[in-house]
Amino acid sequence: MAKKKFYVVWKGKKTGVFTSWNTCKKQIDGFAGAQYKSFASKEAAEKAIKGNYEDYKGKDTKKVILSAAELKQIGKPIVPSISVDAACSGNPGKMEYRGVETNSKSQLFIQGPFEKGTNNIGEFLALVHGLGYLKQKKINLPIYSDSRIAMSWVKKGQCRTNLQITDENKPLFDMIKRAEKWLKENTYTTPILKWETKAWGEIPADFGRK
């Protein structure tokens, strides 16, 4: 589902905050020097309309900005902990994943690249790898992931990808089978936690390719 946006028109046939692109477009079409921009929240848009277009020109206004109260409610990441993430060039495409120490971003493990993979598969494998890593080291720390899909797959003990197996990605599917086998045969008490990107920024294990 597409995220709802709010549109501010500073200069147009009508000015104000609009809740649909079509309505906004009517105000700026054919209007010389129209000034407008989209925002991720109603609060941000209502604040912007009281200011000047120049204050927002060239800036990324599509990100949700949390209030002080929301940030306080979310709190800060638990440390020590580890964080995992995956990167995929294409869908499917070359995929790799890794795990890092959350606070220092020191890399603990990395795998790939694998041919014809997906980001969700990478996120799943990263979580299972992290669980195995901590169990092997006899360390009980939380694991952070920014993928609710991967978290749900781990909880169900199964990688529920729709990706079809091919000669190119067979090694990747072999890894998936091993990961599912590990989940079936092992117990763990490791908390798997959602990384709150809106509050904390990109997860420390992020590959920085966005």
Automatic annotation (TrEMBL):
<dbReference type="GO" id="GO:0046872">
    <property type="term" value="F:metal ion binding"/>
</dbReference>
<protein>
    <recommendedName>
        <fullName>Ribonuclease H</fullName>
        <ecNumber>3.1.26.4</ecNumber>
    </recommendedName>
</protein>
<keyword id="KW-0378">Hydrolase</keyword>
<keyword id="KW-0460">Magnesium</keyword>
<feature type="binding site">
    <location>
        <position position="85"/>
    </location>
    <ligand>
        <name>Mg(2+) 1</name>
    </ligand>
</feature>
<keyword id="KW-0963">Cytoplasm</keyword>
<feature type="binding site">
    <location>
        <position position="206"/>
    </location>
    <ligand>
        <name>Mg(2+) 1</name>
    </ligand>
</feature>
<feature type="binding site">
    <location>
        <position position="123"/>
    </location>
    <ligand>
        <name>Mg(2+) 2</name>
    </ligand>
</feature>
<dbReference type="GO" id="GO:0005737">
    <property type="term" value="C:cytoplasm"/>
</dbReference>
<keyword id="KW-0479">Metal-binding</keyword>
<feature type="domain" description="RNase H type-1">
    <location>
        <begin position="76"/>
        <end position="210"/>
    </location>
</feature>
<dbReference type="GO" id="GO:0004523">
    <property type="term" value="F:RNA-DNA hybrid ribonuclease activity"/>
</dbReference>
<dbReference type="InterPro" id="IPR009027">
    <property type="entry name" value="Ribosomal_bL9/RNase_H1_N"/>
</dbReference>
<dbReference type="GO" id="GO:0003676">
    <property type="term" value="F:nucleic acid binding"/>
</dbReference>
<comment type="similarity">
    <text>Belongs to the RNase H family.</text>
</comment>
<comment type="function">
    <text>Endonuclease that specifically degrades the RNA of RNA-DNA hybrids.</text>
</comment>
<dbReference type="Pfam" id="PF00075">
    <property type="entry name" value="RNase_H"/>
</dbReference>
<dbReference type="InterPro" id="IPR011320">
    <property type="entry name" value="RNase_H1_N"/>
</dbReference>
<dbReference type="InterPro" id="IPR037056">
    <property type="entry name" value="RNase_H1_N_sf"/>
</dbReference>
<dbReference type="InterPro" id="IPR017290">
    <property type="entry name" value="RNase_H_bac"/>
</dbReference>
<dbReference type="InterPro" id="IPR036397">
    <property type="entry name" value="RNaseH_sf"/>
</dbReference>
<keyword id="KW-0464">Manganese</keyword>
<feature type="binding site">
    <location>
        <position position="146"/>
    </location>
    <ligand>
        <name>Mg(2+) 2</name>
    </ligand>
</feature>
<keyword id="KW-0255">Endonuclease</keyword>
<dbReference type="InterPro" id="IPR012337">
    <property type="entry name" value="RNaseH-like_sf"/>
</dbReference>
<dbReference type="InterPro" id="IPR002156">
    <property type="entry name" value="RNaseH_domain"/>
</dbReference>
<dbReference type="Pfam" id="PF01693">
    <property type="entry name" value="Cauli_VI"/>
</dbReference>
<keyword id="KW-0540">Nuclease</keyword>
